[in-house]
């Protein structure tokens, strides 16, 4: 992380690694999701709270921009809401 942008890489395989992402408030942020196996419902990641929904093809990195203007905890999950993670903006 530098002072101009925060970037977090998340591996998607049987869940999210890491499943808890900590970001500094007020610094632009992005999360790179990369799915490494073809487990069914992990082919989509979405968050109503953070305003994104992305299909995750196997071995393709998808980047989502995450707003950091408000502090708090914001959830994200797979397409069926079985696997979950969260973003903590502090």
From TrEMBL:
Coiled coil: none annotated. It comes from the Bacteria. Residues 3-87 form the EfeO-type cupredoxin-like domain. Pfam families: Cupredoxin_1. InterPro entries: Cupredoxin (IPR008972), EfeO_Cupredoxin (IPR028096). This is EfeO-type cupredoxin-like domain-containing protein. It comes from Lentilactobacillus buchneri subsp. silagei CD034. The lineage of its organism: Bacteria, Bacillati, Bacillota, Bacilli, Lactobacillales.
């Amino acid at each position: 992380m530098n002072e101009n942008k925060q970037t977090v890489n998340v591996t998607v395989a049987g869940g999210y690694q890491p499943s808890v992402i900590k970001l500094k408030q007020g610094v632009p942020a992005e999360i790179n999701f990369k799915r490494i196996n073809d487990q069914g419902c992990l082919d989509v990641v979405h968050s109503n709270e953070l305003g994104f929904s992305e299909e995750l093809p196997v071995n393709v990195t998808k980047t989502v921009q995450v707003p950091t203007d408000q502090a708090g905890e914001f959830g994200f999950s797979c397409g069926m809401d079985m696997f979950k993670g969260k973003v903590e903006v502090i």
